[in-house]
Write a structure and sequence with these properties.
single chain; alpha/beta
């Protein structure tokens, strides 16, 4: 019997504290799976959207696009999953399926815009509600298999933080012989260090201070530098094949580009709310690339999960009850988490 209403935590309006409520879920269609959500990660983008930092949101808003759970019902036409399977849902739950990017498995760049797991409108015209809830109905083609070997709570953040770092590391060929720097050691950055290390790259963390240096080394960093020290930019000039910035605060991009080798790239996965300025000579002087990257397609996300299972990689997490969500938001803003909050949805 399909569930039509589920318990959830929602922001009733922009910047309002999240509170317990109920939201509708569509009936399980022929190609849908009903997922009993066990854990939902808290991503900084949840906070940006719940507080209208990236533009006007759809309220009430149930955030959450780092979802791990168990299949509890499948539609008649489902072939990829069965009841009892361990599954995940990431940042989107549908796309046009017809454009050149969808056909290439790059659904995140769908020309018609993919359907976000929350704060979006589905093809049925109804708003989508995310993972801070007990259940969700998702098309099997936008559902991921979570391999045995990754605990569900540690797997949840991989559905955004993991793929957000895996995709650019893979695209820019991080691996043996490559020097990679990760800017920021937070929810995104700590997964970047783990994955880049597992890929075989020489990994450096660039953090504001040396406060997390011991953590960085444990996660797989070979080197750790404080960006608040001007000597860092002198010592590391022209060092890196690839720098990935995970921070959502605006950077001095010319300074960071000075650390990139000729033909290297500085890739942004953090998304500051404010526009940036850039002196183009910092690009021209070394045929350098300033780029962006956004999550990954379904096939690549599955590849990332399989890679993490193979290498024993999960997120570093702090599991909380749903009554601590608002407190967790404030702590994320203060960088007071090592390194990802995960909601135990049994507490909703």
């Amino acid at each position: 019997m399909s569930i039509t209403t589920v318990a959830a935590y929602a922001a009733p309006s922009a910047k309002a504290p999240l509170e317990r409520t109920t939201v509708p879920r569509r009936p399980v269609g022929a190609h849908d799976v009903l997922i009993d959500i066990k854990y939902a990660g808290i991503c900084h983008s949840d906070i940006h959207q719940a507080r209208d930092g990236w533009g006007e949101g759809i309220f009430p808003m149930v955030p959450g696009h780092e979802i791990a759970g168990i299949v509890s019902e499948v539609g008649d036409g489902v072939t990829k999953f069965k009841v009892g399977d361990r599954v995940g849902v990431g940042c989107f739950v549908d796309s046009c399926r017809e454009c050149e990017y969808c056909k290439q498995g790059l659904e995140q760049y769908c020309t018609q815009g993919n359907v976000g797991t929350y704060n979006s409108v589905g093809k049925d015209g109804e708003p989508t509600y995310g993972g801070y809830s007990t259940h969700i109905v998702v098309d099997e083609n936008y559902t991921l298999n979570i391999p045995e070997g990754i605990a569900l709570d540690e797997a949840a953040p991989l559905l955004c933080a993991g793929i957000t770092l895996y995709s650019p590391l893979a695209h820019w060929n991080a691996g043996p012989g490559k020097k990679v720097a990760i800017v920021g050691l937070g929810g995104l950055g700590h997964m970047g260090v783990k994955i880049a290390h597992a890929l075989g790259a020489e990994v450096t963390v660039l953090s504001q201070s040396l406060r997390k240096q011991e953590d960085g080394k444990k996660l797989g960093a070979d080197h750790f530098y404080a960006t608040s020290d001007p000597k860092t930019f002198e010592e590391l000039a022209g060092t890196f094949d690839l720098i990935i910035s995970t921070v959502s605060a605006p950077l001095d991009f010319s300074a960071y580009l000075s650390l990139v080798k000729t033909d290297g790239a500085l890739v942004n996965v953090g998304a500051p709310e404010e526009p940036i300025s850039l002196n183009l000579f910092s690009l021209i002087g070394g045929r350098k690339t300033l780029a962006g990257s956004m999550i990954g397609g379904i096939a690549e996300t599955q590849a990332m999960l399989d890679f993490c299972a193979l290498h024993g990689l999960g997120a570093e997490i702090e599991v909380i009850g749903a009554d601590k969500i608002n407190e967790a938001y404030e702590r994320v803003i203060k960088s007071d988490v090592r390194y990802r909050f995960v909601i135990d949805t049994a507490t909703i």
